[in-house]
Amino acid sequence: MSTNYSTRYAASPKDVKNYDTARIREEFLIDNLMVPNTINLVYSHYDRFITGSAVPTKSPLKLETIDSLKSENFLDRRELGIINIGQKGKVIVDGTEYVLEHKEALYVGQGNKNVEFSSDSDESPALFYLNSTPAHKAFPTKKIGRDDVETIELGSPETANARTLRKYIVNSVVDVCQLQMGMTTIKPGSSWNTMPAHVHDRRMEVYFYFEVAADQAVCHFMGEPTETRHVWIGNNEAVISPPWSIHSGSGTSSYSFIWGMAGENLDYGDMDHCKINELR
After folding, report:
1. CB under 8 Å to 70, separation ≥6 — which residues?
2. Which of 28, 72, 198, 264 has the fewest CB atoms below 10 angstroms from its CB?
3. Full-model pTM
4. Secondary structure string (H, E, C) spanning 80-106
5. Which portions of the chain are predicted below pLDDT 70?
């Protein structure tokens, strides 16, 4: 078993204007996710948000605390969201087993001491995508199946942004402190996600792109609305979006992504929209 983690510090929008491609990728791209038999975590100083993955193969993986938390257990002061984008697997939380099929989720409340991941198949393992945020209150652990999510149809083929948005871990589905997670799938023939773009200075966000074909990519746009930058994203890669940044992308083929947010409030609709013809 192996657990790896790294730290990303917050950056001023004034500084980011001067970053070259390599620096932008170093600061905001997370490209070491979904490694077999490994838990990988990235601790961001934006709202103390942790992005990670767990891919158990021949043996279970246990979620251990990391030095950045200065806590005995990972969830002593945190909550955790898990979405399985692989095959069938299990998450055991303090002795209770939760089976997660493909694209099912689990919310784990603050204060749980032991979290363990396993797969039903070594050759076709579960691929657990993880988001974690600080928590001030303990809420019950809850599984969110595909029939439990809130589904919204957005965009249109005419503007190349027809997509299906599914809310998994939001306060209208499960009791949470500040974590929000969901999944958006771009419909065939469309390419844009989150367009028109927006910012929400009250929350940061992380996009995790998956179901991207091996020879295809997504161009993710970030930065201030009048100072945009771009990052080319491959399959099973994520990008950190600061509160002052837009977060939008366009793919060379169809794809899906998981969005995770944390910050000042739980109002999903709290966003400041950007006019498309005013983006620079």
Report:
1. none
2. 72
3. 0.96
4. EEEEECCCCEEEEECCEEEEECCCCEE
5. 1-2
